[in-house]
């Protein structure tokens, strides 16, 4: 059976996933936060994990724009001690539906922060459909446009010299996985996926087809439902780097920042995927454990995003959706593509290159590390957040 035929034949059902016991499920969104994408109304649909702060949206800038609210590129570089790099590696962002304003909005974001232009004219930016063609593009969708705007801005913030490939699937079905294959076929070394769905047994068949390309780093958001949500796919794939979320705030300390597990960060023990060798020290799970690493995800401490299709301009966004493109770009800065072994395993061999997140909670659970920021690995934040790029480079 071909990859396309298998994807189309995959019938998604909500699996009876074994999750840790809990009494207080975390809420991903407070009164001033709304999901960019609504929950799917039919099975087999992925959901994007972007979250938007309400009450902080601003209209289009006229003339010289004011400095946006929310964390910007300099904040992320400072918090995660990221270097400037001249790499022109290609990072793919895979989403559903078309964002007609994607390129124009990206240029506003980049120019506001003094980042170099990244346009189709200079060869830095390219937008294609799931088959790799420039036309016809999918139907536009304001909800998923919020996801693509967040992802494109985060890639730009962390790796402004990287090339960006935006792959737009026809819809939020398994066509997204076809979009992943197209991204790889078009030369992307890093692929960011800020969407997911509940685990299911057919992951075992799908995984080798979509997430085993040598020399490619895949990152995926771990979900925004806290401990109550359990693992989501494709973050639960052993071939994917699962990215959780944190609350990131400035502080008067040696780092200049403080970080805790964000209450909405998803993760846990996979119901189907076997434990990969690089997780042999993760004793809380007998199977694949998520997350692996994390980055800012709390909308209350969120990132600045510029979106005009489906929104009014500048806003503050979050969710584990922010972390997936951030971590993909960190891998690009580290030059991880082409390295040996599973990229998700690199941080496990270089923990000194991470900020361990040891506080914050996503609910009540047993064992505690499945819902609480803890020393070493924990489900909400994995091994921690970037402290430079050393933990994201292939082991020597």
Automatic annotation (TrEMBL):
EC numbers: 3.4.-.-
Domain Peptidase S53 residue range list: 70-396
Residue ranges that the Swiss-Prot or TrEMBL entry lists as coiled coil: none
Broad class of enzyme this protein falls into: hydrolase
Pfam family membership, one: Peptidase_S8
Protein's UniProt keywords contain Signal: yes
InterPro entries reported in the protein's UniProt record: Peptidase_S8/S53_dom, Peptidase_S8/S53_dom_sf, Sedolisin_dom, Tripeptidyl-peptidase_I
GO MF annotations in UniProt: serine-type endopeptidase activity; tripeptidyl-peptidase activity
Biological processes annotated in GO: proteolysis
CDD domains tied to this protein: Peptidases_S53
Keywords assigned: Hydrolase, Signal
Signal sequence coordinates: 1-23
Protein name as catalogued: S53 family peptidase
């Amino acid at each position: 059976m071909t990859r396309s035929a298998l994807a189309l034949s995959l019938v998604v059902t909500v699996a009876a996933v074994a999750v840790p016991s809990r009494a207080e499920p975390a809420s991903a969104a407070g009164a001033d936060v709304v999901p960019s994408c609504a929950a799917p109304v039919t099975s087999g649909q992925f959901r994007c994990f972007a979250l938007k702060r309400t009450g902080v949206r601003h209209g289009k800038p006229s003339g010289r724009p004011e400095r946006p609210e929310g964390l910007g590129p300099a904040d992320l570089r400072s918090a995660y001690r990221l270097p400037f790099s001249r790499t022109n590696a290609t990072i793919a962002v895979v989403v559903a539906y078309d964002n007609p304003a994607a390129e124009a909005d990206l240029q506003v974001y980049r120019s506001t922060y003094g980042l170099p232009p990244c346009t189709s004219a200079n060869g830095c930016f390219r937008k294609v459909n799931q088959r790799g063609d420039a036309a016809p593009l999918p139907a536009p969708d304001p909800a998923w446009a919020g996801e693509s705007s967040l992802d494109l801005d985060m890639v730009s913030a962390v790796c402004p010299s990287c090339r960006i490939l935006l792959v737009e699937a026809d819809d939020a079905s398994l066509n997204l996985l076809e979009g992943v294959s197209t991204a790889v076929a078009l030369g992307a070394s890093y692929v960011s996926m800020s969407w997911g769905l509940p685990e299911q047994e057919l992951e075992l068949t799908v995984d080798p087809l979509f997430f085993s390309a040598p020399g490619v780093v895949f990152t995926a958001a771990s979900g925004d439902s806290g401990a109550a949500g359990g693992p989501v796919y494709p973050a639960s794939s052993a071939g994917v780097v699962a990215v959780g979320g944190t609350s990131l705030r400035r502080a008067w300390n040696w780092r200049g920042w403080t970080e805790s597990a964000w209450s909405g960060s998803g993760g846990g023990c996979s119901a189907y995927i076997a434990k990969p060798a690089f997780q042999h020290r993760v004793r809380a799970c007998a199977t694949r454990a998520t997350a692996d690493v994390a980055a800012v995800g709390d909308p209350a401490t969120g990132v600045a995003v510029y979106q005009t299709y489906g929104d009014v301009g500048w806003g503050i966004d979050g969710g584990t959706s922010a972390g997936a493109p951030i971590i993909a770009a960190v891998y690009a800065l580290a030059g991880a593509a082409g390295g040996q072994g599973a990229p998700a395993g690199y941080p496990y061999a270089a923990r000194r290159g991470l900020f361990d997140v040891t506080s914050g909670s996503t609910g009540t659970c047993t064992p505690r590390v499945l819902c609480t920021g803890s020393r070493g690995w924990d489900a909400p934040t994995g091994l921690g957040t970037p402290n430079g790029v050393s933990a994201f480079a292939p082991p020597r």
